[in-house]
Amino acid sequence: MSTESKQIKELVKERYGARAKRVIELSPIQEVVADHEHGDGCGCDADTGCCGPIDLDHAVRLYKDSRLAGLPVDSVAASAGCGNPTALAGLREGEHVLDLGSGGGIDCFLAAQQVGETGHVTGLDMTPDMLSLARKNQADLSLTNVEFVQGEIESMPLPDGAYDVIISNCVVCLSPDKDAVFSESYRVLAPGGRIHLSDVLALTSDGPAVTDAESWVACTAGAEYKDVYLERLRRAGFVDLEIDGENNEFRADEQATATNTASFKVVAHKPA
Fold first, then answer.
1. In which band, very low, low, confident or very high, does the pLDDT at 27 lie, cut at 50, 70 and 90?
2. What HEC string does 167-204 produce?
3. Do 97 and 118 meet the contact criterion of CB atoms below 8 Å apart?
4. For the domain bounded by 3-269, which CATH number is listed?
5. Phi/psi zone of residue 143: left (φ > 0), alpha (ψ -120 to 50 degrees), beta?
6. Which range is least confidently modeled, 29-33, 92-96, 133-137, 166-170?
7. What are the C-alpha distances in Å from 189 to residues 34, 121, 158, 160, 175?
8. CB-count exposure of residue 51 (10 Å: 0-12, 13-18, 19+)
9. SS3 of 75, please?
10. N or C, which terminus of the chain has less Cβ within 10 Å?
11. 3-state SS of 25-63?
12. Where are the domains positioned within the chain?
């Protein structure tokens, strides 16, 4: 990995760790919502720079079709996603699910509701503070079918063919080595498995309008044009690729125009 790529990953880890700490510090939730007023134009927090706001309203918009009631407030407030991958994954009871970049655990907890006691959900995250927050939230829910593992999505400390479904929410765009992410995803998926991604992509082949390191953390500079992104999935071995339209709940039209990016839903399958 190049020096620049390492610097990007360290910056991402630093900012998302700061986000986890800040969510805990800003309880009760009224303070979390009020503090959103200090975020920047794309919904990013001014201090942590992460791609989603520390804001319950944002999470409620993205997860409007899901069951947020009963989830720990910290898991909802820590969400930095750009979509709702569990809503489109069609999860079934008994399936084993892997969440790439699981953060405070919100998508893992929603997935756990769907796969039931006979299923299992693994959250993979490289940020120690996010893992601590997620495990605290898991303990609050007394969930036994969820675990959180520390590791990088470019080099997963996980066994071959162990998962039926991979989900990820606004995380692949943060990686400077997407080929490695998709290669590793293919490896850990069982034959016939599927990957469901909510991710930020560039709207045109020109790529994102901003490319500085801070914009990587804000889920912008790492966004790729859809054709490039899908070709990476094909090279990794995935088939039956699908891409759905941009998600206007994530960025307003003027923000998408300014950055030349928007959120999309991407689905791919590993041959049986």
1. low
2. EEECCHHHCCCHHHHHHHHHHHEEEEEEEEEEEEEECC
3. no
4. 3.40.50.150
5. beta
6. 29-33
7. 41, 13, 10, 7, 19
8. buried
9. helix
10. C
11. HCCCHHHHHHHHHHCCCCCCCCCCCCCCCCCHHHHHHHC
12. 3-269
What confidence tier does 51 reach under pLDDT thresholds 50, 70, 90?
very low
Query: Whole-angstrom Cα distance, residue 113 to residue 222?
Result: 32
Cis peptide before 28 (omega within 30 of 0): yes
Backbone angles phi, psi at 122, to 5 degrees: -115, 125
Distance in angstroms (rounded) separating the CA atoms of residues 190 and 164: 6
Burial label, 190 (beta-carbon count in 10 A; 0-12, 13-18, 19+):
middle
3-state SS class at 1: coil
Map 114-167 to HEC letters.
HHCCCCEEEEEECCHHHHHHHHHHHHHHCCCCEEEEECECCECCCCCCCEEEEE
User: Which tokens hold the place of 168?
Assistant: 């990820």
Q: Which two tokens stand for residue 74?
A: 């910290």
CA distance 203 to 205: 7
Higher pLDDT, 24 or 12: 12
Token pair listed for 216? 């990587």
Cα 90 from Cα 162, distance rounded (Å):
18
The answer to whether 78 touches 54, Cβ cutoff 8 Å, is yes
Two tokens at 179?
Answer: 């080929």
Structural tokens at position 152? 């990088």
